[in-house]
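So, can you check these tokens?
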Amino acid sequence: MSFPTQRPRRLRRSEALRGLVRETRLSVSGFIYPMFVCPGTKVRKEVSSMPGVYQQSVDEIVDECREVEALGIPGVILFGLPESKDARGTISTSAQGVVQKAIEAIRKANLKLLVITDVCLCEYTDHGHCGVIENGDVANDATLPILAAQALSHARAGADIVAPSDMMDGRVAAIRDVLDEHKFSGVAILAYAAKYCSGFYGPFREAADSAPQFGDRRSYQMDPANAREALKEVALDLEEGADMVMVKPALPYLDVIRQVRDAFDIPVGAYNVSGEYAMVKAAAQKGWLDEKRVVLEVLTGIQRAGAEIILTYHAKDAARWLKS
């Protein structure tokens, strides 16, 4: 039997050759860096389960945003830790809220970052659920006006993009209607369209102080076993006015990212979530893996699956490594 004329190894002989034929080219231009805003001044408290990630007051957020911009990362997404909580997440709609003040401060600092805001109630409710509780259950329709008011307050403060993560049915339409009614038609919506009820959110709940005080979120976040349902959720959010969609988490749902990418001609994002970040960090601290190599491999895999936009706590490190 003659040796085959096709020798794929020819194009793997050197880094120059590998780079020349590389199919997926990871770029910092698609990264979004998540940040956690808390009350006070000069507050910078590391999240114990997420080394290198901090709960920060507005002044510290602005300082880190300067670093983010200098690294070429195009945007941040803000999550809030409010001064007080109640059953309806009332403070989430206040112009004096921590997220709203952070947006204003970033704008005042003349930073060129895109400012995205998480729109949800879980950080602001005393019960930790993403919607209003009625008769022991999360009430979908009663939650929508609060989410819309929260998104409007973010737009008024200067947000470029609002990102509803609550998974209430109809929330994209409610937000789009209110934004348009108040002449914020230019503010885009990045919908957490396929957000799964995942065990990978654990460290985030420490970072955002958002763990549910009873039950779980299975009645509104998606069942991890379902993929076709994700396409239905994406289609509904697009019909309601979403400009971009997201799959969350990323690594266990690369197949879903690919299906969404193939089915819809819109920008697709993926959230490389806290548990995914924490696993890599913990293993790297133990010396069990090469952090740089694994992080870049993870992010490349997410992009290869079809996500142009990647929300990741690794964004700053990855930006430095890609430049080196």
In short: The chain is about 40% helix and 20% strand.
